[in-house]
Amino acid sequence: MRLRPYGDRALLLDCDDLAEAQAWFAALHGTTEAVLGARSVLVRGEPAVLRTLVERTTPLAAGPGADDRAVEVPVAYDGPDLDDVARLTGLSTREVVAAHTGTAWTVAFGGFAPGFSYLVGGDPRLEVPRRPSPRTTVPAGSVGLAGGFSGVYPRSSPGGWQLVGRTSLAMWDSRREPPALLTAGTTVRFVVA
């Protein structure tokens, strides 16, 4: 891990991979304001104090650890890319759905839009590339796959993930506390709607 200045009130822990970032986040979350990224952890505060804190901290091997909630996400598996995902993985569409619903996913980190969460830990057979050409509009609630991640689009936006289904759950609601339905460490189970 490399420790880098990030403005005058933060430090960035630049990690080798997601697992290392999750281990640092698990160790630092709760002791200081920390934001988990794909290969980084941003900590905010007085840089000299943060540097000392990081130097005295041992990363935890327990993953994100910020949230022990479990959320069930009902999905209608009728996405426009379901057949493509089946072809790319060598599975039938029924097997794609079974693989997506058959394992628990974990929110690794948020990003791209408020309420969008990058989910990891699913069936490794579902690792597929992003679409060769992104769509200009992906409807809110679309459930997608890209690389080793799954995610749910919180609002209508452009996107390049392989869309396998849709849910009616609101991923982001500014009247809810917290506004994001899925936060780092949350366990997510997809179920057939």
Automatic annotation (TrEMBL):
Please list the GO terms describing molecular function. hydrolase activity
Which keywords belong to this entry? Hydrolase
Tell me the first and last residues of the signal peptide. none
Entries under PANTHER family matching the protein = 5-OXOPROLINASE SUBUNIT B
Provide the protein name: Allophanate hydrolase
